[in-house]
Specification:
The structure is a single chain. α13 packs antiparallel against α16. This protein has a 3-stranded antiparallel sheet. It contains 16 helices and 3 strands. It has helices spanning 2-63, 93-102, 111-118, 125-135, 152-159, 175-186, 197-200, 213-244, 249-261, 266-280, 288-312, 316-324, 329-357, 361-365, 386-394, 399-430, and strands at residues 68-77, 143-149, 190-194. It has 3 domains: 2-64; 68-201, no CATH class; 213-430, MetI-like (MetI-like fold). It is extended and about 105 Å long. By secondary structure, it is mainly alpha-helical.
Length: 434
């Protein structure tokens, strides 16, 4: 008996040490696994940041030059017999500009050379001269110095996007055109300035005359219609489903459909808008009103889900206290629950609006892909939006449209960052912890 007890006493420490070794080995494996998991997470974050940095560097590298444009300074003679003060629009301003440009190169005498020389002038150059004459009619019969935009190819040459050292067959400008441009630059007649046209004009077939203002105004009207419809409808739906609706199969079906609609591809909503708003109701094509209706359908699930989550975050004690003090259910919701849930609702709404701002597929289906030059004056005027404008410019082969596409993407990203930052700020400012 004593022998067995002694053996058991000697075996006990050995057994405990084996258990401890097993436990320690397991802990070491778990710690190694945790370190590997953290390393994988850090690597994933670094890869994502690297891709994001590559995206921004690529876009900014291609688009920052669009905010800078070059113009040609010309001293233009305005003969009294060429311009009628009573009808300034009837004058041949393009001919006057061409005469002033050819005066810089009197050796250019053949028709082919003159055509190549006059290609330096933008199609919008005559309007600059007309505006100068309209601003100061006293220049009629004298000379006036005007700044006119260069054609996009010469602007690309000034920005270094066209290499003058390449063989003539490999660039869009001939050796003579490059020499004329360099001569004007040496005379100090080529100047660079901030490209206000990009922010004040609508779309154009000529890259140097195109701008994003028409698309920005169209986006504003479209988002205004979307916000005016989606926010009250989404909040009212969330309040009904969360506070009033009975829990039965019908409401369960509604909730399932709302959650499913949040994952439906946006182009499906475009097809719905095409079939219902355009073909059935006959609403005007390419109008911000129709675009706003389509985007309302797309953003409603996001706003409803976010609003319901905000309502659920309000503690039940708030409701019970309001009801206990004699408030009706409607008063309890309007005066106590909604004010506390409103920050979360606004955050969801801003996120939904940011999503709507970046959508192009549903708007393509309702015709907002049309080429629109005029700035829209209301939600019923034909217009386009910023994502669709980017889509149209990206399909153009000219190098000047490539930089404008990147510049428009930069503007769109700035709007999206601002709207998401506003959502974060609202959440932080009005958030309450219970």
């Amino acid at each position: 008996m004593d022998t067995r007890s002694a053996k058991a006493a000697r075996a006990a420490p050995s057994g405990r040490s084996q258990i401890a070794e097993t436990v320690n080995a397991g802990l070491r494996r778990r710690y190694r696994a945790e370190r590997r998991f953290r390393a994988y997470g850090i690597i994933a974050i670094l890869v994502a940041l690297g891709m994001l940095a590559t995206l921004f560097v690529t876009i900014i590298g291609k688009g920052y030059t669009a905010f800078w444009q070059h113009s040609l300074e010309l001293n233009v003679a305005v003969p009294a017999d060429a311009v009628n003060p009573q009808d300034l629009g009837s004058a041949n301003y393009l001919g006057l500009l061409r005469d002033a440009l050819q005066a810089q190169f009197p050796e250019v005498d053949t028709r082919q050379e003159r055509r190549a020389l006059f290609a330096m002038l933008s199609d919008g150059a005559p309007y600059a001269l007309q505006d100068a004459v309209a601003e100061d009619p006293s220049v009629i019969g004298r000379s006036v110095t005007v700044q006119v935009a260069l054609d996009d190819d010469f602007d690309m040459l000034a920005k270094g996007h066209i290499d003058a050292n390449l063989p003539e067959a490999q660039r869009r400008l001939s050796d003579a055109q490059v020499a004329w441009y360099q001569a004007l630059a040496e005379r100090g007649m080529i100047e660079g300035h901030f490209n206000t046209t990009l922010f004040t004009s609508g779309d154009s077939r000529q890259a140097e005359m195109s701008g994003i203002w028409g698309a920005v105004v169209g986006s504003f009207f479209t988002l205004a219609v979307t916000l005016a419809l989606s926010f009250p409808i989404g909040v009212a739906t969330a309040v009904y489903l969360e506070e009033f609706a009975p829990k039965n199969r019908f409401t369960d079906l509604i909730e399932v459909n709302i959650n499913n609609l949040a994952a439906v591809p946006s182009i499906v909503f475009g097809l719905l808008g095409l079939a219902v708003f355009l073909q059935f109701f006959g609403l005007p094509r390419s109008a911000p009103l129709v675009g706003g209706l389509v985007l309302t359908l797309m953003t409603l699930p996001t706003i409803i889900i976010a609003s319901r989550a905000a309502l659920k975050s309000v503690p039940p004690s708030i409701r019970e206290a309001a009801l206990g003090l004699g408030a009706s259910k409607l008063q309890m919701i309007l005066h106590h629950v909604l004010p506390l849930a409103m920050p979360g609702m606004l955050t969801g709404t801003i996120i939904g609006m940011a999503q709507a701002l970046g959508e192009s597929a549903p708007l393509l289906m309702i015709g907002m892909v049309a080429f629109v030059v005029d700035i829209p004056n209301g939600p019923l005027d034909p217009s386009t939006v910023l994502p669709v404008q980017i889509f149209l410019w990206a399909d153009s082969p000219e190098r000047a449209f490539v930089e404008r596409t990147s510049a428009a993407i930069m503007v769109l990203l700035a709007f999206l960052v601002f709207m998401n930052a506003a959502a974060v700020w609202l959440r932080k400012k009005f958030e309450r912890r219970w």
